[in-house]
Amino acid sequence: xxxxxxxxIRELPGDVLTPVSAYLQLNGRNKCFLESSNKHEDSGRxxxxxxxPSFMLEKRNQTYQKVSLLNNHVEELxxxxxxxxxxxxxxxxxxxxxxxxxxxxxxxxxxxxxxxREKIGSYPTDDSQIADVSxxxxxxIVIFDHLxxxxxxxxxxxxxxxxxxLQIRLDEILQDLQQPASNYLDSYxxxxxxxxxxxxxxxxxxxxxxxxxxxxxxxxxxxxSQRFEAPFEGNPFELYRKLRKKNPSPYMFYLDxxxxxxxxxxxxxxxxxxxxxxxxxxxxGTRKRGKTPDEDQALEKELVRNEKELAEHDMLVxxxxxxxxxxxxxxxxxxxxxxxxxxxxxxxxxVSEVTGKLRNDVHELSPITACLPAGxxxxxxxxxxxxxxxxxxxxxxxxxxxxxxxxxxxxNFDFALAIRMxxxxxxxxFVQAGAGIVFDSEPEAEYEETVHKxxxxxxxLV
Length: 462
Hints:
Layout: E1 7-13, H1 19-25, E2 32-35, E3 46-50, E4 55-60, E5 63-68, E6 74-76, H2 82-89, E7 104-109, E8 133-138, E9 140-145, E10 150-156, H3 163-176, E11 189-191, E12 195-196, H4 200-215, E13 221-234, H5 236-246, E14 251-256, E15 261-266, E16 269-274, E17 277-280, E18 283-288, H6 293-304, H7 307-325, E19 334-343, E20 347-357, H8 367-370, E21 379-380, H9 382-392, E22 403-408, E23 413-417, E24 421-425, E25 428-437, H10 443-459
Antiparallel strand pairs: 1-10, 2-3, 2-14, 3-9, 4-5, 4-8, 5-6, 7-8, 7-22, 9-10, 11-13, 12-13, 13-21, 13-25, 14-15, 15-24, 16-17, 16-23, 17-20, 18-20, 19-20, 22-23, 24-25
Helix pairs in contact: 4-10
């Protein structure tokens, strides 16, 4: 463990600034925004903004590399897996703070990182050419603590940086936060008509093929997805502002990478670690919110009595328990919340929570890839389901169904499941959505479910 880096922290009153205004006021490059809606229990305490990262960790062409954003130097890393690569470029520090992130990595782990651990078949068509893994190392961070109504500006000393240079970076942020946010508004956005990566007839054919595998006992379920794309013009952050307002969620994110922007509002925690406790929260079972309290209650009762929804939910809980049992102390894996109805702005979900205590012989970062992907976006048994998905889907999933979040330099981390999100790249917008195929699935209905899910994302943005 390396010694804690020197850092400067300035506390500001939190009754004037807002996270969005601060994001707009900050003049730095390569900014990222992580937050959680305060409309949900146990959510909403912190909003995190990072800017001016000193380097990136990327995985391209099956090689991890450290890319300096200060001098453009690219260094190929020795490690060929994510855990080793992170340990190489960010040795663990002993950081004790109530704040979740003083410095660390912010970004995503793509779906295909599972190939580091499992053989699921050859790579599908990769027309996006984006990195399988992309993280910024953030050493300039603004954190909103909504519980204490305080804002913390944190700058961490870089290699060979003088104390004076560190102070200058802090002062520049404080100066930015005194400027009016209205100077930075650019509200123009235009989304064209969406088209799919797969024809309807082909999707239905793949559903029938997966159903045959289920009838033969090969799998119980597989999540088949399709990707939609549309022409895009304008400021991607404006899309995020609309999304956070119309669809507040436990995990909301906006990541501004050099080659793409990623924005989303995910309801589901993929994997989280605090000290040695790891957590995942499977979600399955959905109903729309009622227009009246009586209708809302009726829909909730129908959801909790629906045998098909409950069976699918139990399967995902079992997958979560199996994932954590591989990593955690014997007897420590517990279902701490079971089939709890959680209500969001537009829908309600059945949500469970599975926790466990990480074993001492397991690397603290291992859960990030060991649990990839969540059962919600793969199926069961997980490996066989992914092999069949690999055969059925025509294009690489990329970020979709991976994880989006942060890794603190003390190796605590928190990742949203990468669903209900949009990628902007080369003046195109990409949305992906899946449906869980089971033995009694109706192919036409499963196709329509993916279309409906995609439209529900796009609908709040236009």
